[in-house]
Specification:
Rossmann fold, Pantoate--beta-alanine Ligase, Chain: A,domain 2, six-stranded parallel beta sheet, three-stranded antiparallel beta sheet, 10 helices
Length: 284
């Protein structure tokens, strides 16, 4: 497995890969890899000839009051995990390699409508940072396929729209959320939580499952009432809910009567840790 820290070295290596006619799979990450990340790499290895995993904690997607400096980093452990999989290369650049003039860019890639909803409403500029760095990585790695977890459903939807709107020749592959046995969605930020807090955080998944059960049983559900029930349940467990939204799965706008393809999105804070989760459902 090759490890690259500079764009020049990465491009030189990928030129040889392209000349050999090999397909490229890209798995963008911010490191501190868990089983969810590794499942993306494994899937990429089964579907592509050459797999690149990026490890880059992107400063432009963090607000000034967020956890950029404290975000968990475990590079050596990550490399050991990746070396046991079908990962051919790791691109782990320094911040100045990706942002040579600094992270305050004049040029941004943005999806204005989707980026202002849900997490975007609470984290202004977050998805501009995500879209910009992902576009940079797409440009640098030139992948045929790129792999993202469905746990970050809004992010996945935004990136699919980005690729479509900019006519990028990349297939975006969304992979199912990986969970702990308790149901808690795997996340690097789970490292901030104690064992007791992890158990406490399972209320997010429970609230999603409860709402899905009601949607399946109620022929005429009132979405806003179900959202309020879920928010109260989350609060009663000691979390500070940001939102619980029943949405059209494609537009991410509030679901309307008659919508069948839905996604339930939730975000909450447990002390200083932000947690998100979702479930998709197709009503009959």
């Amino acid at each position: 497995m090759q490890i690259f820290q500079t764009i020049a070295d990465l491009r030189q290596a990928l030129k040889l890969v392209k000349n050999d006619g090999l397909s490229i799979g890209l798995v963008p990450t911010m490191g501190n890899l868990h089983e969810g990340h590794l499942s993306l790499v494994s899937s990429a290895g089964k579907q592509c000839d050459f797999v690149i995993t990026t490890i880059f904690v992107n400063p432009t997607q963090f607000s000034p009051n967020e956890d950029l400096q404290n975000y968990p980093r475990s590079f050596d452990v990550d490399i050991k995990a990746l070396s046991s999989l079908n990962c051919d290369a790791v691109f782990a650049p320094k911040v100045e390699e990706i942002y040579p003039a600094g992270p305050a860019l004049d040029t941004l890639v943005t999806t204005p409508s989707l980026s202002k909803l849900h997490c975007g409403a609470s984290r202004p500029g977050h998805f501009d940072g995500v879209c910009t760095v992902v576009t940079k990585l797409f440009n640098l790695c030139q992948p045929d396929k790129a792999y993202f977890g469905e746990k970050d459903y809004q992010q996945l939807t935004i990136i699919k729209n980005l690729v479509q709107d900019l006519n990028l020749p990349i297939e975006i592959i969304g992979m199912p959320t990986t969970r702990e046995t308790s149901g808690l969605a795997l996340s690097s930020r789970n490292n901030y939580l104690s064992l007791e807090q992890k158990q406490q955080a399972t209320i997010l998944y429970q609230s999603l499952k409860n709402t899905v059960k009601t949607l399946e049983q109620d022929s005429n559900p009132i979405f806003s009432e179900l959202e309020q029930v879920a928010l109260k349940l989350i609060s009663s467990a000691g979390l500070d809910p940001d939102y619980f939204s029943i949405c059209n799965a494609k537009s991410l706008l509030p679901a309307k009567p008659g919508d069948k393809d839905l996604v339930l999105l939730v975000a909450a804070n447990l002390e200083n840790t932000r947690l998100i989760d979702n479930i998709s459902i197709k009503l009959i």
